[in-house]
Task: structure prediction
Amino acid sequence: MSMKRTNVYADPEDLAIIKEAAKRRGISEAEIIRAGIHLAAMANRVWDEPLFSRTFEGPGRTPTKAEVRDVVADAVRRETDPGTAA
Result:
């Protein structure tokens, strides 16, 4: 893979953490920084297509915390109770 050199300003405390992590993991500081740049790039990427191509029917609002908890609890009960049919 071809790479391009660039200069960035970094907080000295962050650089010290990176230096310690690189030594502990046995890899170069540059490798950690490249991984961080990649994560930042991917987090800010705009995709040409939506993540989900299908839409699902729903109530048209964000479910409440209690509704989510109840649905998850019901699903767990169905998986752990052998007498319950899905």
About this structure: The mean pLDDT is 88. Residues 64 and 70 are 10 Å apart (CA to CA). DSSP finds three helices and no strands in the chain. The two ends are 49 Å apart (CA to CA).
